Amino acid sequence: MTMPDRILAASATLAQPSRFPATATSPAAHAEHDRMANAIRALAMDAVERAKAGHPGLPMGAADIATVLFTRFLKFDPTDSGWPDRDRFVLSAGHGSMLIYALLYLLGYETMTIDEIKRFRQTGSLTPGHPEHGHTPGIETTTGPLGQGLANAVGMAIAERHLAALFGNDVVDHTTYVLASDGDLMEGISQEAIALAGHLKLKKLIVLFDDNGISIDGPLALADSVDQVKRFEAAGWAATRIDGHDPAAIAAALEAAKTSERPSLVACRTTIGFGAPIKAGTEKAHGSPLGAEEIAAARAKLGWSAAAFEIPADILAPWRAAGKRGAPARLAWDMRLAALDPKKRAEFERRMAGELGESLAAAVATVKQKLAEAPKEIATRSASEFALEALVPALPAMIGGSADLTGSNNTRAKTMKTLSATDYAGRFIHYGVREHGMAAAMNGMALHGGIIPYSGTFLVFSDYCRPAIRLAALMGQRVIHVMTHDSIGLGEDGPTHQPVEQLAALRAIPNLKVFRPCDAVETVECWQLALESKNAPSVLALTRQNLPQLRLGFEANNRCTHGAYELVAADGGEAVVSLFASGSEVAIAVAAQKLLAGRGVRARVVSVPCFELLLAAPAAERAAIVGHAGVNVAVEAGIRQGWDAIIGSDGTFVGMNGFGASGPYKELYAHFGITPERVAEAALAGLKES
Ligand SMILES: Cc1ncc(C[n+]2csc(CCOP(=O)(O)OP(=O)(O)O)c2C)c(N)n1
After folding, report:
1. What is the Å distance from ligand 1's center to 467 Cα?
2. The predicted structure's pLDDT at residue 102
């Protein structure tokens, strides 16, 4: 079918009388709504029962909300779950995963078969315990750690506003919906998220709060007495409270939210486990199978006579019709995209595909050329800023930011305007002192597509971002964290601000690349690798203190590609000592190598900007880089953990064994024994032993 034919066919579908209730006020419409919602409840009860594990309470309680949202509001097309202009739905309370799985099945997502529902929580199924993005089509983000989904949604809503400002409402005009639970709203990250969303006036963000007053321990009153409506209002949201089992009230609240100039909270009073005669309204419905007896009684109470996992045809039909509802909008969008100026359209498509375009390599080469012509003795945070001045104009998808440390993190390129409620086209976000919310919002932007988010804070505060960084790694999202002040080298701020274990802790996260460049040239090379890392997040650990430029002369090749390389070869024959270092300690290793040469000891220096790339390199490559010297010494102003994979358990480590201290940084290096002399001594001692 040609495009206009498809549009005509779609319009014909639209012209037919809808099987869905336009309003749910008539008794017949109400009855149909109830039966459709009960289909979700039945599937949730059955799947959890069969799996002997899971959370039936939330899907049963939120079934009415979901039915209204998915059949009458949400814009989506199951035949193209990646349609860029679809509305996003985030199930922030990921433990209620059966809600979204039931919806995907009922709405006709091809991969979500009834067999997958039967395989809920089984190995390899599309229905894992918590929804996993990239695993199950239709899942917008991986949720389970409470609060994250809500904060991701803020990033999605920022991405939508930004791209709409750039490409126009004809191609970018969608709403981000969130279903959040008590747990989501109790988590601290939710405060960071809602404050940012309110401040940025993200009017196309709508949070449906499953306000059931129950969590695992029992009634919410045991631990919480916040008035969420007032709380959201205080953060600049439109907020209202409704009966979450009344389809007309849900629809009316959503209608109002859609016209609001502010983000909206709809607190929906619901009963957890709605329909279960004994367990409904109690924590017993939250996180375990209801049991055969209770399920039978719930079926009777709900008037649901179909067998387990069976959805009667007259209920499946309106659900499937709801699944087809978005096709005309999707086709109309195709037409609008096709009508866009060809250059703009190509740019939009390229960005949504996550492609970098041609300009990255040229920008990197320009920076390296400049550094070859005029070497710089600067901190790597400044080197990063120098790189960003070239990268940011070359890559319009880069959206920068900082958690209130812009001048310290050096993440703002001069050309960047602030992204604000009055200018969503800006490219720099002042996240405020909200590291966790920032990291989670960045995930949301990356998941939305069209944006490569990067931001800044101090490396020691990576701990404040860690749950979101972990999820970025799990989801394989390209987000880039610039984390400066990366060791005792920050000096006088002292041990509270000096990272010691953070490098090791970050390196422990699978699929996260931790870069620690040693000079200005490595810094731009690491930026290039982070930007090219389409399916993994990165951390750039950068110094506050100045470092000499160790890489002199122009070299087009990115020497950091395999994570490590021989920076200085041994003089006069094969090395008997290999000195390994990252970041600011590479210069110390280079000085130690000279001391050793003065003592007639042949040593080489290997710069190790990225463990993960080195450990992932082919074995032969890795062996060649690590070398075969009898003595290996590593130096890094952090803890040893992780280095054994490179230097072996018999290697010597020069670094930190405990927390740092407050003082001028050069004194601290001497105080903690991270000096060329100490490294040379360690090598000599190693040679004596061998
Ligand atoms: C960060 C985090 N802490 C703890 C948990 C474990 N957990 C899962 S659900 C839940 C609370 C359940 O209460 P609520 O959010 O109200 O969900 P409901 O009982 O309504 O399903 C907890 C503590 C989690 N998933 N994430």
Report:
1. 15
2. 99
Strand order in the sheet with 513-515: 428-430, 398-402, 452-458, 480-484, 538-541, 513-515
Kindly name the residue from 435, 525, 612, 636 that is annotated as catalytic: 435
Average pLDDT value for the chain: 96
Q: Give the three-class secondary structure for 457.
A: strand
214 close to 272: Cβ distance less than 8 angstroms = yes
pLDDT band at 357 (very low <50, low <70, confident <90, very high): confident
The strand pair at 631-635 and 652-654 is best described as: parallel
60 lines ligand 1 (CB under 6 A): no
Ligand 1 site-directed mutation target among 91, 181, 466, most atoms within 8 Å of CB: 181
* Parallel/antiparallel/unpaired status of strands 238-243 and 88-91: unpaired
The tens digit of pLDDT for each residue in 213-242 reads: 999 999 999 999 999 999 999 999 999 999
- Indicate if the pLDDT at residue 1 is higher than 90: no
Q: Is 436 in the pocket of ligand 1 (CB under 6 A)?
A: no
CA angle (637 as vertex; 519, 378 as ends), nearest 5: 25
Return the amino acid letter for 64: D
Residue nearest to atom 9 of ligand 1 (CA): 95
Instruction: Read off φ and ψ for residue 136, nearest 5 degrees.
Output: -120, 115
DSSP letters along 610-642, please?
Answer: -HHHHHHS-HHHHHHHH---SEEEEE-SS-STT
Q: Which residues pair with 205 in a beta bridge?
A: 176
User: What is the per-residue pLDDT across 12-37, written as a single tens digit (0 to 9) for each?
Assistant: 443 333 444 445 478 999 999 999 99
Tell me: the pLDDT tens digits for 531-590?
Answer: 999 999 999 999 999 999 999 999 999 999 999 999 999 998 999 999 999 999 999 999
* Ligand 1 nearest-atom number relative to CA 182: 16
Given this model, what pLDDT does residue 18 score? 41
**Ligand 1: centre distance to CA 93 (Å):** 7
Which pair of tokens denotes residue 555?
A: 């070299």
Token digits of residue 79: 């035949």
If you measure from the C-alpha of residue 287 to the centroid of ligand 1, how many angstroms do you get, rounded to a whole number? 9
435 carries an active-site annotation: yes
> Which residues, in sequence order, are bridge partners of residue 207?
178, 265
The 10s digit of each residue's pLDDT in 190-215 is 999 999 999 999 999 999 999 999 99
Nearest atom (ligand 1) to Cα of 55: 21
Quote the strand ranges of 427-517, DSSP E.
428-430, 452-458, 480-484, 513-515
Atom of ligand 1 nearest to the CA of 272: 20
Nearest CA to ligand 1 atom 18: 215
